[in-house]
Amino acid sequence: MLAGLLALLSNLAVLGFIYWRTHDEAASALQRQVTEQGAVLADVYRTGGMPALTDAIQDSTSYGDPQTAVGLFDGSGRQQMGNLATLPHTTEPVRDGFSNGLLRFQGETTPEAAALEFRRLPTGQWLVSGRTVGDSFALRQTLERSLLIALAFALLLGLACGVILANYVSRRIGGIVAVTNRITAKDLSRRVPLTGNGDAFDRLGHRINEMLDRITALMDELRMVTDSLAHDLRSPVGRLRAAAHAAAETGDPAERDQALANVLRQADSLTRMLATALEISRSEAMTGREQFAWFDAGELTSELGEMYDPVVEEAGARLEIERPREPLRLFGHRQLIAQAVSNLIENAIRYGAAGGHILLVAGKIGQQLTIVVADRGPGIPAERRTEALKRFGRLDSSRSDEGAGLGLALVRSIAHLHSGELVLDENAPGLIASLQLPVSDDPAAEPADASAG
Amino acid sequence: MGRKILLVEDDSETAAYLSKGLGQEGHSIEIASNGQEGLFRGSDGSFDLIILDRMLPVLDGIAVLKALRAAQVATPVLVLSALGSVGDRIDGLESGSDDYLVKPFSFAELLARVNALLRRREARLNPADHRLTVGDLEIDPLSRSVKRGGKKIELKPREYLLLEYFARNEGRVVTRTMLLEQVWDYHFDPGTNVIDVHVSRLRRKLEDGFERPLLHTVRGAGYMLAA
Description:
The complex is a heterodimer of chains A (453) and B (227).
Chain A: H1 2-63, E1 68-73, E2 79-82, E3 89-90, E4 97-103, E5 112-120, E6 126-132, H2 134-184, H3 200-232, H4 234-249, H5 253-284, E7 293-296, H6 297-314, E8 318-322, E9 329-332, H7 334-352, E10 357-365, E11 368-375, H8 385-389, H9 407-417, E12 421-426, E13 431-438
Parallel strand pairs in A: 8-10
Antiparallel strand pairs in A: 1-2, 1-6, 3-4, 4-5, 5-6, 7-9, 10-11, 11-13, 12-13
Chain B: E1 4-8, H1 12-24, E2 28-32, H2 35-42, E3 49-53, H3 61-70, E4 77-81, H4 86-94, E5 99-102, H5 107-125, E6 132-134, E7 137-140, E8 145-148, E9 151-153, H6 157-168, E10 174-175, H7 176-183, H8 194-207, E11 215-218, E12 222-225
Parallel strand pairs in B: 1-2, 1-3, 3-4, 4-5
Antiparallel strand pairs in B: 6-7, 7-8, 8-9, 10-12, 11-12
Helix pairs in contact in B: 2-3
């Protein structure tokens, strides 16, 4: 409807413009002609006097253009020369210059509308040149008629176009609405049909489809997490229950104390596991980006290295830290990156300390900042690395180590939060875990005090 | 000596448990069961400490906290919350709280933090001379030098910070998470015994060659520096 109206309006505007231009143009062309003719005749008189003017008037009348009128009249309006029967009528009294009026040719009885140029000669005579509007008037009428027909056509066409366009738009949008209706009805499998011509509707559809893919992936993951959480919580809750039971049953105070301490430990481990699962979900949902700030990832790495150094030593290994002298500026969540790196170090201590050497490296190549933790332990076989990164993907199922299955998954989700990735590789022997984080050198993202560094 | 503590907690079971425990420590507890009431009672600044649950009916804990700080109430605030992600903790601390404790917590952990906050308030109210002494241990925060029985003890920078924190909480239990937060400024839960390793190293430096122990392990809670 709106489209039809708009088409109609623009058509009207075009037609109106044509009408205005031609109407105006015709009138001014006519005026120019008679003014020119008057000026030429006046010049002839000025240079050649009456005899030359007489010749010129005879010339133009004998020329035979039925539209052109020339005449010389005396002061009282009597005809002296030319093809005019009488002095033409004008609405205003006769004066020098251009005016519109009525003229009558010799031998004619009906006056015709004309553009007229009056020139008063020094002798008191009136030199009149004129041109009837006849032809151009008829042309104008034809034009106006055509314009009206064109207007009618434009109206019909505009309406038709509007209807077609409206149909098209509502069909394309209908496709999208159908999909969103299905989503409301909890069906996420449908996708917006695309025509493939890359227009705005296709782009919108594409974005919606991408969004749906992402939501589906998140929901699948959520379902997976809920399922595995429910499943994985069974064993710690079972252990907690068994510990509580043991504490309730025993009569020996020393044994009871021990059993109660075990209850507390199991409860703590359960809490920690839930907290980690929550942290993973938050990172995957991109929550926490509002707490991003600039910090020196190299400094953080050596700080953590220093913190874990005694622990590595107690585990019978040596921790080697490498980082460039210049700051490794990263826009991210300092606490979460600290947690990720500490998880990697703890992982290396837990599984790789037997190898005797743990390497902690922070560095930057191009636009990528990498923090590597490499150990010389047994490593993880290539075919099991994907599994190791999954939530609850605990490699050693016999291990009752609390939360161990979540460590790498948490590191990976923190990498994702920073648009980065956690990559596991072979250290032959041992495991190389690289936290790869893209850094932007976008000056717009620089903090105000960046120049200090 | 007992202190006045305002406990803003809507869960009556938790409130009763905390109020009983803190009461046994000699503090007098008042309970407000929603945020508005908590804000109203806490506004006069007559309490030594406010323990504020984050999720409260009528007015949530963070809103109460911001309102208190906007009204220039400087009473220390300890936020309790079931929201335990690293982001939530940072958020809670940045809203003007002095400490943030995630539920579930042990009473020992809460008590240690309550005592540390009360102690900090005291220290702020009566600025003592800058030298810290614990028995025959002397700490000079300006030069960061440590002596025991007149003998100089060499500490690494982080070990010094650890000791200074212990000394400022002399005679009070300090938990592992408090140490991680206050000395290292990390707000996550490490899976290993990293804090224990550092404390035992510090202990060795403080106690090697001396009869009396200074740095004590408090079972089920944490550590305590005391002569």
